[in-house]
TrEMBL record:
The keyword Acyltransferase applies. Residues 5-64 form the Choline/carnitine acyltransferase domain. Keywords: Acyltransferase, Transferase. GO terms for molecular function: choline O-acetyltransferase activity. It comes from Clarias magur. Catalyzes the reversible synthesis of acetylcholine (ACh) from acetyl CoA and choline at cholinergic synapses. It comes from the Eukaryota. This is Choline O-acetyltransferase-like. It catalyses: choline + acetyl-CoA = acetylcholine + CoA; 4,8-dimethylnonanoyl-CoA + (R)-carnitine = O-4,8-dimethylnonanoyl-(R)-carnitine + CoA. It holds the Pfam family Carn_acyltransf. GO terms for biological process: acetylcholine biosynthetic process; fatty acid beta-oxidation; neuromuscular synaptic transmission. Pathway: Lipid metabolism; fatty acid beta-oxidation. The keyword Cell wall biogenesis/degradation does not apply.
C-alpha cells in the first residue's frame, strides 16, 4: 500500500494559485480573482468546509 498523499494547507494552496494567475490575467481581472479567493478562503467559508471534507476523504480512502 502506498503512503497517503499529504493535503496541502488551504491558505498555502490559495496563495500559490494567486501567485500563478497574477501573471496570466490583466490587473483588473486579478483584483476580482483575488477578492473571490479571499472570500473562498475565509474562516468558516466554503474553502474551509471543502478542505475539511478533503482531509476526511484522505483519512478514509486508500490510494485516493
Amino acid at each position: 500500500v502506498l503512503p497517503k498523499v499529504p493535503v496541502p494547507d488551504l491558505q498555502q494552496t490559495l496563495s500559490a494559485y494567486l501567485k500563478c494567475v497574477k501573471h496570466l490575467v490583466p490587473d483588473a481581472q486579478f483584483q476580482k480573482t483575488k477578492a473571490m479567493v479571499e472570500k473562498f478562503g475565509k474562516p468558516g467559508g466554503t474553502g474551509e468546509m471543502l478542505q475539511k471534507k478533503l482531509m476526511e476523504r484522505r483519512e478514509k480512502t486508500e490510494n485516493w
